[in-house]
Prior knowledge:
Elements: E1 4-6, E2 12-14, H1 26-38, E3 43-44, H2 45-52, H3 60-75, E4 88-91, E5 94-97, H4 105-117, H5 121-133, H6 147-173, H7 177-190, H8 195-207, H9 211-229, H10 235-245, H11 259-274, H12 280-294, H13 298-317, H14 321-329, H15 343-359, H16 366-379, H17 387-402, H18 405-417, H19 426-443, H20 446-462, H21 466-483, H22 488-502, H23 507-518, H24 527-530, H25 533-545, H26 561-571, H27 575-583, H28 594-608, H29 611-621, H30 641-652
Antiparallel strand pairs: 1-2, 3-5, 4-5
Amino acid sequence: MQVRFGVLGPVDAWDEAGTPIDLKGPRHRAVLARLIVARGRVVPVSRLVDDLWAEPPGGAVSAVRTFVAALRRALEPQRPPREPARLLITEGPGYVLRAAPETVDAWRFEDEVAAAAGASAQEALERLDRALNWWRGPAYAGVDDEPWARAERSRLDQRRLNAVERRAQALLALGRPADVVPDLDAHVAEHPWREEAWRLLALALYRAGRQGDALAVLRRARGLLLAQLGVDPGPRLRRLEVDILRQSEEAGGALGALGPERVWADAAAAYDRAVASGSRTRLESTVGLLRSLAVAGPGGLEAAREQRVAAIAAAEQLGDPELTARVIGGYDVPAIWTRSDDPDQAARIVAAAERALAALHPTSPEATRAGLLATIAVESRGTRSARGPEAARDAERIARRLGDPALLAFALNGAFMQTFHRAGLAPERDEIGAGLVALSARHGLASFEILGHLIRLQARSALADFHTADQHAAAADRLAARHERPLVGVFTQWYRALRLAATGASPPDAEAAYREAGAQLPGAGMPGVEQGLLPLALLSLRVWRGLPVDVGEDTDWGPYAPWARPLLLLARDRRPDAATALRQTPNPPPDLLFEALWCLTAQAAIALDDRTMMRRAQTELAPAARELAGAGSGMLTVGPVSGHLNDLAAALGGTPGP
């Protein structure tokens, strides 16, 4: 039985038939709500106690367990007495709700809104309508006085307000201004400080032929903002008023601010009329759209990733290897992070590319073959497959022979992804980055020029050359602003936090910078970057500075848990468990954090006097003796590798490294 949960209104649950489930009393609902807020992470019993009571009574822990037992019976009434729970699970020091994303209305709402960001106007309207219809009242009603619920309620409410305004934009893009007016009129009445809502309402009135009403709305907004807040309207509102007064029809004015959307809608409609549904041309055109979508922002990146696999599957069904190869290789989206956002999907893409390569006719264009090879090189990142480096070399060789700059840039991206087979390769990556910057600047390849600057930022950080790294961060930011690449700022903000940590900032200041950068990751559409990165950055800083490393039992370490666990167990004085965990620690994957993870392993080995692991770490880290551990990621550092090598040499009774 699949249970559905609702927090966009009162906290409720329904069984598979849609029948409400009796959740007992308010404390039971509060426990359920707190676990939903945690979104699949364990909430310790001690945290639940603190969150349920301002002054916990005696027996609070037992009461929480009673609430959980009652919730389990309500949510899984058919579960046999001794069979483990499948939904509300005991894990470690607390509880976790293992609900599927589609079963919680708040999670569905956020996913739908994110998908709308990269969709056509019609699809965006449909998605936003669905998302907004899931709201039944104020979020977390009934527990909204709790501090942990207030923050989540406020966050969701802001997303709802943004969704209302984005829905209005979609209606305007579809040429339906009259449909915008009633909802936005109510929206600004309830939320009068939202300038974008006033702007959209005035624009809708103007486009509906109600110029006088549009000006009246703008005057009302101006008067309200001045009287209540003492501020003038922002530049977009002021510009719209001027354009309406001038009855501007120029695309550059505020009335034309949505002009590109109308052009897009008209062009899409013309394409629909001219190109047959299901045609090969339409499928191949989709790849170009997905390529643009992937660099447009968080929602676009997620949508492009999802639709890319569908496009490949559709191409394979047509039985045309060259078409399939073009669909696969045409998605030449620059990649900077060496951990895949979806490893299973990456493996499927590599397999499809290999099938297409094998099926190509010997007379097929070499550029088509090189696109497949570059795809294999990029999508094989973070693995130890020998195929990745081989594909990267072959793609680059073909691209250079053909003199195709765009193909060469894609091939160089693949070459970059395959330069992590050992430590100490920052100079090689710096050379690749320099080549990408020069090539892309000559040929107007903006996305790959940004990639080149980010690669050089990483490499120069590894070499502690922050003066040069600063220049590449600034160049990447300038290009990102000019070409509307919002995700670039995530990487440059993390770089500035790393720079602060690496150049002597106090640990509290460095931690604050890391946390501020970490706040940009949720919702950025890059789970391969997001998962576990902030706690790893904080752990690395504390290990380097000799500070306590226990950062909380309920911390989500993501893929970095095996390398953090020995140090965390040591911090809790559990040496036997730490020694066992260290022996089970795998070799770090060949990626941007290779040296950092080995340094953490080295420090655990020193503390536990595990000489076998110390010697392994010494061998692996020696080639990077002149680098900053982890700084090649452009995100974090564990300090100079030489310091860790000296610690290892001292512990082993040998000679310190350089």
